[in-house]
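Model: Ready when you are.
Researcher: Fold this.
Model:
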Amino acid sequence: MRRLVAAPNLALATLWADQLAAAGVPTSVQRAWTGSIAGEIPVDQALPEVWVMDDERHAEALHLLEELRNPPWRHWVCRSCREHVDGPFEQCWNCGTPQPALGE
């Protein structure tokens, strides 16, 4: 078992661990409840951590986590209403048309 990352809060630690597990990399959240004693111990020691269960998959998990934390920024134009859509949206915010598949 090897430490992957300290998360700023329990919600993100759990989200990252769940997403990595869904990608086939078994993980565990450690120090989930130590935030309640921050101040009595240094704050950086009270952050929840995501750990990879298999040491050999640590590099793979780091790569996947980097992709999860930094999704590609997409810009596209809606084919129905011609609205410019920015960000990770898969649907036009104006008319609801789905984002076209790559190559369309």
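Researcher: Now this one.
Model:
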Amino acid sequence: MGVFVESGESGIREFVAAYHITFPVGKDNGLAEKLNAFGIPLTIFVSRNGMVVKRYIGAIDYRELTSGIDAAFK
């Protein structure tokens, strides 16, 4: 899921179209503050029970992506 902190709805749609994003996205409703998510890009992996299991500030590579997914589903 992608969360846009600063863009209006039209900006979100434009970004999604320009980068061919296929996962769910939406405008922040306070989630960024709750997760202390202020760096961009930022990737946070959350477990099924809502616990943050991994956090990466900056771009991530395939190994970090798969490691985060694995950690979230343990």
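Researcher: Key takeaway?
Model: Strands lie at 2-4, 25-27, 42-46, 52-57.
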